Amino acid sequence: MNKHLLSAADLSRDDAVAILDTAAELSRVTDRAVKKLPTLRGRTVVNLFFEDSTRTRISFEAAAKRLSADVITFSAKGSSVSKGESLKDTALTLEAMGADAVIVRHGASGAPHRLAHSGWIDGVVVNAGDGTHEHPTQALLDAYTLRHHLAGGTGALEGRRVVIVGDVLHSRVARSNVLLLHTLGAEVTLVAPPTLMPVGVDTWPCTVSYDLDEALPGADAVMMLRVQAERMNAAYFPTSNEYSRRYGLDVRRAGLLAHDGIVLHPGPMNRGMEITAEVADGPRSVIVEQVTNGVHVRMAVLYLLLGAAEVDTAVAHEEAGE
């Protein structure tokens, strides 16, 4: 693997499978009374979040702590950033504190790349979401979830059909998922109103559709995206009811999936808009499981990037009480 994880495009097929396999091994830790391994003891991991987050921030924090790392959580609100401190000065402060890894979420696309290649810090940089660009660990946890349900927890996702629906224009999750799922052999279809499809999407390794009812039949999985109203400064569709009618996932549409098809959502959900409560809480939904899997996958990413010892050895030592 590369030193940093900035984009799903950074991952080869072997890299992605290695992360998913390692996550599967590390998931065994959560079945124990003490959910910790000593593999990153003495390492410092900083959560550097310039945007609000619940799932991603807590997931990375839990992942680092389960690997026995020291964790510093930095929020832009209530910090010197709110007084005008630059990304550079914040990075230099973290470097002075001896950060081994920086998990960064930022509203500007490309901020993690800038941090990783600026020379301001020597540690590992992991992109936890940058603007409307990418969110690679979300794509990894989605792939882990898909693999668990559709491929028996092993191998890739060769030939599986995944439909991603909603606000693709503003979604960093969609871009990362398209790249990673393509790498793993899945066939991806993006569905959205024309106004919420990004310029240049025809160059992405996927199929584009504007008709959800046409795209869903026989699909192995559907991933619903949140309508990101906070990023919209214009009317991208007539009304929320019209959007829901054409692009919302209800029980009828969920029934168009393959018999073992599953429903995903990166969260947070707009219940009643992009997805109904009946589907979100229904038997096809793996939305809560995605959160659990996020901890396993982020443990694997930190473990592999920070170069700890073999996971099997660490697990064996833990089981032996050493």
SSE layout and pairings?
Elements: H1 13-26, E1 44-49, H2 55-66, E2 70-75, H3 87-96, E3 101-106, H4 111-117, E4 124-130, H5 136-150, E5 161-165, H6 172-183, E6 187-191, E7 207-209, H7 212-215, E8 221-224, H8 240-247, H9 251-254, E9 262-264, H10 277-280, H11 287-305, H12 311-319
Parallel strand pairs: 1-2, 1-3, 3-4, 5-6, 5-8, 6-7, 8-9
Helix content range of the residues, please?
Answer: 25-40%
SSE pattern: HEHEHEHEHEHEEHEHHEHHH
CATH superfamily label of the largest domain? Aspartate/ornithine carbamoyltransferase
Largest sheet: 5 strands, parallel
Kindly identify the CATH topology of the largest domain: Rossmann fold
Morphology call = globular
User: How many H/I helical runs?
Assistant: 12
The separation of the N and C termini measures: 30 Å
Radius of gyration: 20 Å
User: How confident is the prediction overall: mean pLDDT?
Assistant: 89
How many distinct beta strands?
9
CATH second-level architecture of the largest domain: 3-Layer(aba) Sandwich
The total tally of domains equals 2
> What share of the residues does DSSP label as strand, in percent?
5-15%
CATH class of the largest domain: Alpha Beta
Structural notes for this entry:
This protein has helices at 13-26, 55-66, 87-96, 111-117, 136-150, 172-183, 212-215, 240-247, 251-254, 277-280, 287-305, 311-319; strands spanning 44-49, 70-75, 101-106, 124-130, 161-165, 187-191, 207-209, 221-224, 262-264. By secondary structure, it is an alpha/beta fold. It has two domains: 8-133 and 291-319, Rossmann fold; 136-289, Aspartate/ornithine carbamoyltransferase (Rossmann fold). The strands form two sheets. A five-stranded parallel sheet has the order 7-6-5-8-9. Helix 1 crosses helix 5 (136-150), helix 1 crosses helix 11 and helix 5 packs across helix 11 (287-305). The longest helix has 19 residues, at 287-305. The chain is globular.
